[in-house]
Amino acid sequence: MNKTRSIVLASLLASVGLMSSCNSGNMRRNPGKIYAPDMTYSRAYDAYTSNPNFADGQTSRVPIKGSIALGHDLPDHLVEGDTNAYKALTTSYRFNEAEIKEGGRLYMIYCGICHGAELDGNGPLYTSGKFAAMPANFKGEKYLAMGIGTMYAALKYGKNLMGAYSSQLNVKQRWQVIAYIKKVQSENGGAPFALGVSTATEATTLADTTQAVQH
């Protein structure tokens, strides 16, 4: 009996001692042991500062070769002057009404001053007498039949007196501008419009599919 009582008493004393070691009234001096302290208290490096962990000593890293930033498009691999590639170029983009309207807004910012608000080549720069040659009339027979790839190449690299717009418009925006032009052309004797979507659901599905392919 005395032996059992001694065992119980020893257990109680051990428990009290353990509890005391865990709670010392906020006066504890020893923080104990930390597993992987370099992960708990990791060293942070600011961008553009030196960093001994990399061979070049720089914290800021170059993107992995072949990677594509979130929200950006796959490269189109066009080479300036490759006419055959332009003619064959197409796109999986399909735009809803709001996106085509945005294409029209971009057209007015970057194209309308030359090609005109009505797409007939009578933009302010031409009607003011600044240019001797009339800009392209997108309602003319030649441009009604022009392929979207050829138009895309002109936007990306420029054509004749027209400058390049690759720095002002990203891939999707270029196709939006072309979609807007083709939509107007379809209403003025051109081929049926083929860059639009019929429903909001279809637009969402196509957008999700494009993002999945890109990333």
Description:
With 215 residues, the protein is mainly alpha-helical. The chain has a domain at 83-214: Cytochrome c-like domain (Cytochrome Bc1 Complex, Chain D, domain 2), CATH 1.10.760.10. The chain is built from 10 helices and no strands. Helix 8 (148-157) crosses helix 9. The longest helix is centred in the N-terminal third of the chain and has 21 residues, at 2-22. The chain is elongated and about 115 Å long. Mean pLDDT is 82; it is low at 200-215.
Brief characterization of the structure:
The protein has helices at residues 2-22, 37-40, 83-88, 97-110, 112-115, 124-127, 141-144, 148-157, 171-186, 200-214.
Uncertain spans, ≥5 residues at pLDDT below 50? Answer: 200-215
Number of helices: 10
Question: So, the CATH homologous superfamily of the domain at 83-214?
Answer: Cytochrome c-like domain
CATH class of the domain at 83-214: Mainly Alpha
CATH topology of the domain at 83-214: Cytochrome Bc1 Complex, Chain D, domain 2
Our Rg estimate from Cα atoms comes to 33 Å
- Report the structural category: mainly alpha
| Biggest sheet descriptor | none
What global shape is seen?
elongated
Distance, first to last CA: 74 Å
Tell me the β content: under 5%
**Percent in helix:** 40-55%
The average pLDDT is: 82
Order of helices and strands: HHHHHHHHHH
Task: List how many beta strands DSSP finds.
Answer: 0
* CATH architecture level-2 label of the domain at 83-214: Orthogonal Bundle
